[in-house]
């Protein structure tokens, strides 16, 4: 056929496509289908039997052509609809209805019944007398021991060093094959309040165990997206010895509260605002993002921030009551993927 | 009103903060009861059992070594009894014709007179069971027979009316395939009805059946489940299987005739602290460290029925044995009110219209109050404490 010959020679250019379509339209008109003449663009139903979809065309080039044409048409219609809506809004001015809020997974989140109500007395009592009570009553100040799994590689060692600059009053020790259950009583006698163990796999850190010491809970996290200081672009100079401020974002449920308090108890109670350093633990969709910044207020409303220290993402795997004992300890919360991850809109922290 | 409704609660749960919670599953309400008005962590509930006289009284064993009497009819704590001696919390609490049997962690089992007058009297009987007790359980068929077991403390069955020596002392299993001694850690014990057998679940994820009637002191049946310590166990209504829970929140039904796993129940996220099955209905109540009380249906079909968030870590629970769960107290109250007002309106029909209208408006007000109460109950999602 001459038509197909033209198309194949030109390689399917737009103008030829339009010409072919116009020819098809004329054919349809001659066929006597009156309803299709009113359409500007030739719809497929005109030339083909009704209920026909583009995907039924066997020829790949032709199918691709019809699809791209349909897509362009859709885009045009969408743009036209947007412009029309915008014009209507401008025309109405103040009386225009409010813009509809787009649905996101965060604002479609299933309401969690364990969300803490700030006025709840029972939860307030529970928190006031839990294992972190001595920290929040300012009776103890934190002293952290940071260590790794056995035989760490360079990245993990550097992460530990950088973490110890970020967390005040922290000490890094090499693991040297010691068992955690033997380290913990020694830490308790030396007045350590927290133990951080960074687990490493194939030369990258991938897990974090945070154990509050006298008899406190142990949280086990998956760690990902670890960026050391030299990998962070446009960063500021190294952090100073000032005690940073803490920001804990979006820890709403009861479990989130426990984890948030655990993070808060890592840092001393008296932030030095002179240092203008802030550590942020931001929880979004059960992932906790850790960032360390230095801020400066240029005016009342404008702030400039420089990212300093290491950055990583944590996801809670389990919260165990008592110090580290993964085999015989009692778990307060265990992440079970097949039971808990069934809904994309349900989060636990 | 909470006090009047207390008798209709289906499940009673004891928490780590010392609050006793009564949960009504029909109305989806949970009520808090404390002895002193404020929760106190020193009074954390470690053992619960029904008191004398059916289900009208609950004995609450607290961490400060006191046993409190709680009346379900009135919804208040009635008496307090100090039970000193030994160290640690209560691991078992039972009552037998006017006496309270307590057992603490360090192995002192004492029988006390359940009398409010002599608050600080000496125990009637004291037995040393051995240190490291994890559970003491009373035989429901023979109230004077108890069994104890714990960490490195083998299962022993005691007859409190008999001698000082245990009636049955279990023997440890043979050395394992490496010729090492198998450690003992009995976490929960149950008496099987209809025979003398006992079932235990251990911290080394084993479930064992012992038969004191047979000549062998070693377990008659042994099965394992999972990789984590089993913390709680309960018998199913059929009597042929048990349901066990472990520290990871996994619940499993194990058949005792063959030692086979029948099925698992999903839902718990934390360590299981308390489990109890209803004696006739296929319902299982479970509570744990994840602060939620769950009621599962065990058969046809197996699944979750109710889930109640209770804000504090739950330590132990008591499920009421009664058959009619749909019994609403409102019917008897309304039955009382309606005939009274009917007679009053009948008498006052002949009198002035104003008086009749006042009577009608009173009726409407009370009905309105009832409706608002009902509306309040049906608020979606939350159970009010």
Q: From N to C, what is the helix and strand string of chain A?
A: HHHHHHEHEHEEEEHEEEEEH
Strand content of chain B: 35-45%
* pLDDT averaged over residues of chain A: 87
In helices, the fraction of residues of chain B equals 10-25%
Number of helices of chain A: 10
Taking pLDDT < 50 over at least 5 consecutive residues as the criterion, the unreliable ranges of chain B are: 331-339, 361-379
**Share of residues in helices of chain A:** 25-40%
Report mean pLDDT of chain B, rounded to a whole number: 84
Give the terminus-to-terminus CA distance of chain A. 65 Å
Largest sheet of chain B: 4 strands, antiparallel
Query: Which percent band covers the strand fraction of chain A?
Result: 15-25%
Radius of gyration of chain B, Cα only, in angstroms?
Answer: 24 Å
Q: What shape does the CA trace of chain B take?
A: globular
Largest interface (CB < 8 Å)? A-B, 22 and 29 residues
Shape of chain A: elongated
Q: Could you tell me the number of beta strands of chain B?
A: 28
Features:
A: 349 residues, alpha+beta, eleven-stranded mixed sheet, disordered N terminus, B: mainly beta, four-stranded antiparallel sheet, phosphoprotein (chain B), WD repeat (chain B), WDR74/Nsa1 (chain B), WD40/YVTN_repeat-like_dom_sf (chain B), nucleus (chain B)
